[in-house]
Design brief:
With about 425 residues, the protein is an alpha+beta fold. The chain is built from 15 helices and 18 strands. The model has no long low-confidence stretch (mean pLDDT about 95). The structure holds spermidine (SPD).
Length: about 425
């Protein structure tokens, strides 16, 4: 017979595995398993990863809770294990966690919570009588609440997911993962950033491709830098006039992840008109012959890791050289409100190379990129860019026949209308 209602163990775990402490999925699983080992009934778990490192999470059990806050950079985890009743032994959970987190050593303190000598029990039968029925119907069900968060210091986007990774590979360049999010379906991540999700990838891929395709009007040879998931080449091949596409992706793991788990994106990788090269797009561009493409699309990641070079003036100087006269460059240029400095720098850089009259920015609304507002830049070589000068009826028929979900001639016009605050961020003309 216990002399208190609950037992609360405050645990300090030192010398833990940093990768374990930074892995929200494994940490959540260990905490849930620890609860189960201690014979607790798990009701719910909520876990968040913080970038670049750190995880916080709680497992709610019928007998109270287990909580963790992990500092991978100190190889340290603070854990609370609070149980009530006689069936659950919190020390079993402690032993399990110490091993699972590969802690070199741990220190603990047990507090008795709700000491019976201090309490007086009242009769609350009247409260429970009318709840008996609903309690029977509402047996607790384990509900996981595992979140992926794409964030910088001040802004975050979170997606709740199943807690299982469908793909998880560390390439020489980056970590590539696919998870199953509840609201947006399968989601491709590079490091801690969302690249695309099944449910809204069409916005990005339709807008990065069809806008410049209709502006140019007769693209035959296109080059894609990045685009390893395949969404951009899928959209390019909707255009019957395309004769060949070269796609240069640095990381074969991105292509592999997409082929395995995102068939709606990777469906054109076997197109005979596609030359898929696994190599660095920046060196490819530096060594590419002058005036060899009608269209260049830069479908890279954010300015971290291997994509950093896709944000440099030398690279855009090469793009200019490699385009034919009248050729179009189209690039993803980050979120004006999320990666403001990259957005401004890319606009300035492309304007300096192509000329202000040949460069324009447009927007699309991509709900799974932080802030939702995303931008693209179109630049045309040795030609004043008139984004509104395209074959509207052809674009309308194309949009209908291809069952596009975002691109239409109206969206094409509208996309170039910038809210004044965005226009002011990049105003030079
Ligand atoms: N913050 C996300 C920016 C990602 C841009 N590229 C996405 C690749 C989709 N093909």
């Amino acid at each position: 017979m216990h002399d208190s209602l609950g037992r609360h163990i405050l645990v300090e775990l030192f010398g833990c595995s940093p990768s374990m402490l930074n892995d929200v999925i494994r940490l959540e699983k260990s905490m849930v398993d620890a609860a189960k080992k201690a014979h607790a009934t798990v009701i719910n778990s909520t876990f968040h990863h913080f970038s670049p490192y750190g995880v916080s999470g709680v497992v709610v059990i019928q007998e109270s809770h287990l909580a963790v806050h992990a500092w991978p950079e100190y190889q340290y985890a603070a854990v609370d294990i609070f149980t009530c009743g006689t069936e659950v032994d919190p020390w079993v959970a402690y032993d399990f966690l110490k091993e699972a987190l590969q802690a070199a050593h741990g220190s603990c303190m047990e507090l008795k919570r709700g000491q019976k000598a201090m309490l007086e029990r009242i009769d609350i039968e009247y409260l429970s009588a009318d709840r008996k029925e609903s309690a029977l119907q509402n047996q607790p069900q384990f509900k996981r609440n595992v979140w992926f968060t794409d964030k910088d210091e001040n802004i975050a986007l979170s997606l709740r997911h199943s807690g299982q990774l469908l793909y998880d590979e560390q390439s020489p360049y980056q970590r590539v993962r696919v998870l199953e999010s509840y609201a947006y379906g399968k989601t491709l991540l590079i490091d801690d950033m969302v690249m695309c999700t099944e449910k809204d990838e069409f916005v990005y891929h339709e807008m990065i491709v069809h806008v410049p395709m209709f502006i140019h009007g007769k693209v035959q040879r296109a080059l894609v830098i990045g685009g390893g998931d395949g969404g951009t080449v899928r959209e390019l091949f909707r255009h019957k006039g395309i004769e060949d596409v070269v796609m240069v992706e640095i990381d074969k793991k991105v292509v592999e992840a997409s082929k395995l788990h995102l068939p709606q994106l990777s469906c054109e990788f076997d197109n005979p008109k596609l030359e898929l090269r696994i190599e660095d797009g920046i060196s490819f561009m530096a060594n590419c012959a002058d005036a060899s493409f009608d269209l260049i699309i830069i479908d890279g990641s954010d300015p971290e890791g291997p994509a950093k070079g896709l944000f440099s003036p030398d690279f855009y100087q090469d793009c200019y050289r490699v385009l034919k006269q009248g050729g179009v460059l189209n690039l993803q240029s980050e979120g004006p409100l999320f990666n403001t400095s990259a957005f401004i720098d890319l606009n300035k850089c492309t304007e300096a190379i192509f000329g202000a009259a040949s460069t324009r920015c447009y927007l699309a609304y991509i709900s799974t990129y932080p802030t939702g507002m995303w931008s693209f830049i179109t630049a045309q070589k040795e030609t004043e860019l008139n984004y509104a000068n395209f074959d509207i009826s052809e674009a309308a028929i194309f949009s209908q026949q291809q069952h596009l979900q975002y691109y239409s001639p109206e969206m094409h016009f509208a996309a170039y209308a910038l809210p004044p605050f965005v226009r002011d961020m990049i105003r030079t003309k």
